[in-house]
Amino acid sequence: MTDPAIVANGLRKSYGDKVVLDGVDLAVPEGTIFALLGPNGAGKTTAVKILSTLVSPDPASGEIRVGGHDLAADPQAARAAIGVTGQFSAVDGLITGEENMLLMADLHHLSRSEGRRVTAELLERFDLVEAAKKPASTYSGGMKRRLDIAMTLVGGPRIIFLDEPTTGLDPRSRHTMWQIIRELVTGGVTVFLTTQYLEEADRLADRIAVLDGGRIAAEGTAEELKRLIPGGHVRLRFSDPAAYRSAVSALGQVTTDDEALALQIPNDGSQRELRSVLDRLERAGIEADELTVHTPDLDDVFFALTGGAGLPHQSKESVR
What we know:
alpha/beta, 6-stranded mixed beta sheet, 11 helices, 35% helix, elongated, disordered C terminus
């Protein structure tokens, strides 16, 4: 197990009588992608603002450590280890992409030569060389997002907070951003991601936490979360009617489709459950022509854990 890049114990935040975060516990291992999901207004952005030192937690909160630094004791050290890309672009449209990058280099107190070197490398890495001399106001949404993240990387952060980084992007630009995020983690960066796209969390995140009512309703891998929700099943299809009838008798409580010669068995998709089904078929001397496992998706998980309020968008495109 790698050491946690982010640890929060009993994270709390209230604004007057409104409780936004009510004892949130988080642990994010280094070099992973952690996704925080939740209905609109659940407190996702507030959590990011606290962890990135932009907002102070309530005094009743427990210890919070980011990049190995205690936020209460040494927020400046934590700040030096992180980068933040918010929902709204920090790009200045009145100056060029290159000038935006050089401005960030100045803010990080890089020397002129080092700033130009880092800027050139990042512009090339994010495929922005041709547009570097053009005003950022002329960039497409996807280009602005790439420039935004490139600017975040100028200081060489080990931890990056991405607050809904692909909102409003077209499918192609969103896929490009997904690839960039994967490459960041491959390079050793830890990514803390909030998103309103369920498929985005499913595709990218090593672990996902669902925030509801100021608390973590559930946390785990995408597959672990899906197994929390009933409705999973195994579907067996047969080409031989006799084998189909024998399977129905051997397996007991199943849902049958006589026309398709198919049957469904409640199953959570785990290796143990699948092995049980296959062992019963083998003992009866039956072989299915096709076996498919169906598990609930993150839509189902989100509805079950939050009551469906403020359901994030489900992006239908996929990346293989």
